[in-house]
Fold each of these.
Amino acid sequence: MAEVIESVIKGQSKPPRGIDCLAGSAGRSLLLVGAGGCGMRGLAAFFLDAGWQVYGQDAHGFQTDDPLLAAGMKVWPAGSDPHPQVSWVVRSAAVPAQEEHVVAAQAAGAKSALYAEMLGELSLLRPVLAVAGSHGKTTCTAWIAYGLREAGVQAGYLVGAQVPQLGASADWGDPELPLVVESCEYARSFHHLRPADVALINVDAEHPDTYPGGLPEVVEAFEIFLQGMSATGTVFAGPETPDLRHACDGQWQDCAPLPADLPLGLTGRHNRRNAAMVAAVLKSFGLDQPAIDHALATFSGAARRLEEVGQASNGALVVSDYAHHPVEVAATLQAARERWPGRRLMVVFQPHQAQRFHAYREMFAPSLDLADALLLLEIYRARDPEELQASVAELVPELQQRLPHQERALSTVQNHQEGRRILASWWRPDDVVMCLGAGDVDAFARSLL
């Protein structure tokens, strides 16, 4: 990486291919369907910055003060109104190929692509550092981008969440420098990328709806992903990364653990492991040790990663976190213990997907051991087959067995209103209310303020 930056400074680098080379029959224009998602918003920012006409469509609509609208994105006309012609129609993974706006745009001559496929197109335009792993991608991508920007290195970045210290989830940056991209394994999306380098955090069984074969199938997908990277690139392997060096032609670099007393901006054993990889990547960009230490000590995280959303009416601190896999839930609660020692953790947990709930059923109860009180919202169904039924109540017997009911409050609820009522009967002013999950539990957290 340092060589790339040095060549830019000396004027020796080859000029990158700009986004404009993707222009098609309708010029520099595209429609984003499902544009409200964070990744799609990042794509919108890239194309808007390049001067393209960007249209957005989302089932949830857009607020009038949406930054993308202020930056020039136009809302796609509704109904049967005449629609502008666009060169591309890009849809999020949640939008089916036969969605009406996608079909109409294609019929008018637009090329069609999934978000992951368009990201793959962009990875051919400039060097890409792909941050991959079953857990921790958002935090590590944001941490790397933050460290580079703090050091004055204007590399581009695309993160799957808002990052307050960066001001946005995406920025094209200097096109002659690498683009740091959060790359997702869901439905093998990352197979569309052609990265120059890879930061590999961990590999775990996840997304049972697209990896029904479990961990062996996930490992195979990561191996194929690594085979698509540059033969001259580097895989930065975190402390939890399995040895997959056989799958890539590039250099494999194991990242050394950090000194135990090195201060970090984020708490938790998992974040100390993440920070080791972040440090190695930043060093590869040519940052000196003081700049690396500064980045590690001052980064405060991405949205919905131990995010303090405010105080409840009684003074309790309300925290929102995206953790939904049992490995993530356990790691998040351990980090919360570090961050708020001595305070009660009132945990509100909402499982995400009946398929995930069934696949990792035996892992969920142990992942919640550190909760002092536990409120379980019903499973948030997403992409679940209708015939697959499950209820969070199935966890109750094991939770009671692991920690008797008299030692912690435990309840299941069917709706947010009931949840707020029960929580209000439990909490104390000095409690920390941890709201965990990938469904609408974040809305529940904010409703407590």
Amino acid sequence: MHNQISPASRILLFVASIALLISIFVPIWRIELDAPQYPEGLIMLIYANDIAGDVEIINGLNHYIGMQTLHAENFLEFTILPYIIGAYALLMLVAGIVGRKKLLYFAFWAFVVFGIVAMADFWRWEYNYGHNLDPHAAIIVPGMSYQPPLIGYKVLLNFGAYSIPDMGGWLFVAAGIFCLFALLLEKKIIAKLFKKRSSLSAVLLMGLFIGLSSCAPSGPEPIVLHKDKCSFCEMKISDGKFGAELITTKGRVYKFDDLFCMKNYQKENNKTIFNGIYIHNFEANNELMEANGAFFVTHAELKSPMGGNTAAFKSKKAAQIYADKHAVPVTTWAEQLEK
């Protein structure tokens, strides 16, 4: 029938419904705190109905700076949120079973509104806890607030606060993407793009691609010379031929002014997993490339900022030419790590 959605859209709605149901039982959001006195960091996990992780330690720290302590029973959201998520999961399931286009459109836009309201409420919660401070707290910094970032990284005193969706949050994103893809499918936008009706397998593969690409790393973050500081020695990065960068699996970026600093930082944080390791191309200015595919030459004449005296080249030929001039070997990233 004209008002019925396709089998592919039904499947996408069923998958979205399952994703939302799972999100009720896993962490939706996480806030990580890093500081010298906590080398392994502190983590707060936010579930649909609870707060977990290093909550007691964080509450103890909050007390000193005048922030309110965090307790799940103080939040109305933790009482009603599981039911709201369950209602949206049921709505998408019913939309898939009934198969009416209008119900699909309603489910999608209602979910979008819910997402906007939820993020606004989360920001309001962070704002209140970061700004409404006890005037009699042990530590008072005039003009200082302690609102964590809604998403991303922010420095709060000597703590680095990192806020990002956890598994449940990414399941929310995935549910929205699958629902959106079903809507685009029914609006014939997909068919117009391909100028013909795609097969069910092709449609589902594209939906999966969109879901994965929304979470894929976007490569290195450009180093701002004379402004960004080295995460190891804290000197400003000023030379665009010797800098380096590490990116964690959660997207946190650490920048360095010398390969020497990056290697030492890795040794001190050997429990941290880095899925992005980049190094400046010696033959360019402030151009980052993957360290794993680069070729390295070490010689005192290079005089890098912190004495690592190691240059990285994009091609083995270029590295070999430089190395031959000084009678030194060309090494790979694996060999550099052994030094």
